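To fix ideas, we close by showing one paired sequence and structure record:
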Amino acid sequence: MPAIATTQPSVVTEVTVLTHDSFAVSPEVLAKFETQYQTKVVIINAGDAGSMLNKAILSKDAPLADVIYGVDNTFLSRALESGILADFTPSVVPAFVPEATTDVSAPLLPVDVGYVLINYDVAGLKTAGLPVPQSLTELTEPQWKSKLVIENPATSSTGLAFFLATVAEFGPDGWQAYWQALRANDVLVANDWTTAYYTHFSGSSGKGPRPLVVSYSTSPAAEVFFSEGKLTEPPTGNVAFGAFRQVEYAGVLKGAKQAALAQQFVEFMLSNDFQNDMPLQMFVYPASQTATLPELYTKFAAMPSINTQLDAKTIASNRDAWLTEWDTIVLK
């Protein structure tokens, strides 16, 4: 009796990426990697950058993933000191934009750059007869009473970035008085960016009561993009002060089941295919100098020419104490 030919189902190798909830990539871009390496990319969304890093550290003896993406400069030192990262030398490294290389980051590689700053409601300020504010200090003056909504730096990476901008501006012994003045001027604290932007900010579709919000330098461009052609100009703008630079990194987790594929995926994130896709997927600036920015960015999302920065080690060694002090000053 002749043997019956049977077809065994092929086993598809998976490479798993641990990342934050804001991760987004075009399906066709991800498919290029999957096709090239005959693999499936599995994405684990793990909250914001801090929550994601905590999960990676707690599971380091049995890693949840092969790749980690979304560690930013506010958590960089903690990630590097935690023992969760594998050393590797990428075969191809692009020329990075200078903004992406402030901190020594190996074995993490910079993937994108973003800027947290205050957005203003163009029509809202005009209606109120208010000019665009020109400094952080100005926000403590009477005309800006009850006008600003921020995010809690203990629960929001956006809020943390803005808080760190004030530390950089006023110094480790001066930010306390600034926040006391903001509290006296009725600053509103939301737990997260979504609530701040879409519930309390008057310039968003939520049409809240406050014309100033802590958001991103790309938010005005995003307003135009997501209007699907209804807007040709953004209803919001960026102030020219107080921007805090965020750099996001990717790396290979120590003990990764698919270490080789993990390295290839990190390298893929630095390719033009991925880098060119990021601006309109995650509304961040590519880390690679060879990436191309969309026209929407050249029109409405120029990188802030003046921005503040604190080195990663300073942030790591002071963050918890600073946030405890901030909570006492602003929320108690």
